[in-house]
Amino acid sequence: MLFASLIGTTIEFFDFYIYATAAVLVFPKLFFTSADPGTAVLQSLATFALAFIARPVGAAVFGHYGDRIGRKATLVAALLTMGLSTVAIGLLPTYDSIGILAPALLALCRFGQGLGLGGEWGGAVLLATENAPPGKRAWYGMFPQLGAPIGFFLSTGIFLLLTDTLGDEAFFAWGWRIPFVASAALVFVGLWVRLRINETPAFQRAIDQHERVRLPMLQVLRNHPGALVAGTFGALATFVLFYLMTVFALSWGTSKLGYTREQFLLLQLGSVVFFAITIPLSALFADRRGRRLAMILSTVAVIGFGIFFAPLFSTGSAWGTLLFLGLGLGIMGLTYGPLGTILAEMFPTAVRYTGASLAFNLAGILGASFAPWIATQLANRYGLAYVGYYLAAAGALTLIALLMVREGDSG
């Protein structure tokens, strides 16, 4: 069961991150034409943002069926949606072949990725937390969260391998397509695992006790608006931090700091280890001292990191950049470990899939969709320090939201 929750989010985040990497390194050259390379990057980042707009739609659609039909069937459908969209990206013709239709099809596939991930995350978290024994809900809930660093590690690793083995001509001609098409194999593995699991005990109790509602989305909006708002802003800083440390950092590092594509991907690959390590550490702390306290302390760390963002990212040395990336992603793990559990605990079983998914994915719109674009604009106009202030401001909003949340004990 824990492996089923982990393998699905690993595949989903792998698919999601290979797009994020390609949005910086590949798509500006192949899908967008502009005399100014910076403008092409911004156009590419706009399609990156599209998935975050699609994710709440996916949360509403898949959340409805997850709360009505069950976690298992819905997770299978979400994985298929994400997987097929990703493989399609790897088969798309470029701008030189079909003109303006190329970025339009790319945007459509990106929307499909967002739909799938919007339904995947909430179901994976519930698959873990609703099977957790007493006192270990955060520990169980962190397993799907581990899919994020593992997926990022795999996506960055494969792009690094392609960069190392292929020349630029081969990479841009066909090599970039390999991660997208190869994800089909991972999807088949995920489907095989998902089809073998059972329904969660909590959802089975909801069926037995006739607790299911006809329109979970309406119930969330009408009966739990406070939880939805608090959950959305409680996850805001997590999203801003992650996409500054990955997409924005990669773009800035390779365009302004003089790193090659291979050098910066290698630094990111090393730093993601800190992300993976701090997720279980924060989950252990959350089970012992409370999910709310764990999130509050990690959010304070986010604010502090934002204040020192510019000097840490401007050292001029590879070791300094590795420290910057490792520290930022380490703090990311501290916020991400308990996040799924605390969001799930905000909503009752009958609407939990919909509520937790909506909060998580609305936070994605506010905190991640345009974060790389906003950060790029701030850095170009005012300097890196203002990117840090942007992160600190997001952390302050998250801190306020968390202070209004009560520790959950939903079954």
Derived structural class: mainly alpha
Query: What overall geometry do the principal axes of the alpha carbons give?
Result: globular
SSE series: HHHHHHHHHHHHHHHHHHHH
Give the averaged pLDDT, no decimals: 87
Q: What is the makeup of the main sheet? A: none
CATH superfamily: MFS general substrate transporter like domains
CATH topology: Growth Hormone, Chain: A
Question: What fraction of residues sit in β-strands?
Answer: under 5%
CATH class category name: Mainly Alpha
CATH architecture: Up-down Bundle
Radius of gyration: 20 Å
**What's the number of structural domains?**
1
Q: From the structure provided, what is the oligomeric state, counting identical versus distinct chains?
A: single chain
Main location: membrane
Subcellular location: Cell membrane
Pfam families: MFS_1
GO molecular function, one term: transmembrane transporter activity
Topology:
Elements (H helix, E strand, L loop, with lengths): L1 H24 L1 H4 L6 H32 L2 H20 L4 H4 L2 H29 L7 H29 L2 H8 L1 H18 L6 H8 L7 H8 L1 H10 L1 H20 L5 H29 L1 H17 L1 H5 L4 H27 L7 H18 L1 H12 L1 H20 L8
InterPro entries: MFS, MFS_dom, MFS_trans_sf
Main location: membrane
GO molecular function: transmembrane transporter activity
Summarize the structure.
By secondary structure, this protein is mainly alpha-helical. It contains 20 helices and no strands.
Folded structure, characterized:
With 411 residues, the protein is mainly α. It has one domain: MFS general substrate transporter like domains (Growth Hormone, Chain: A, Up-down Bundle). 83% of the residues lie in helices and 0% in strands. The chain has 20 helices and no strands. It has helices spanning 2-25, 27-30, 37-68, 71-90, 95-98, 101-129, 137-165, 168-175, 177-194, 201-208, 216-223, 225-234, 236-255, 261-289, 291-307, 309-313, 318-344, 352-369, 371-382, 384-403. α1 (2-25) runs parallel beside α4 and α15 (291-307) runs antiparallel to α20. The chain is globular, with a radius of gyration of 20 Å. It comes from Lysobacter capsici AZ78. Its main location: membrane. One of its GO terms (cellular component) is plasma membrane. GO terms for molecular function: transmembrane transporter activity.
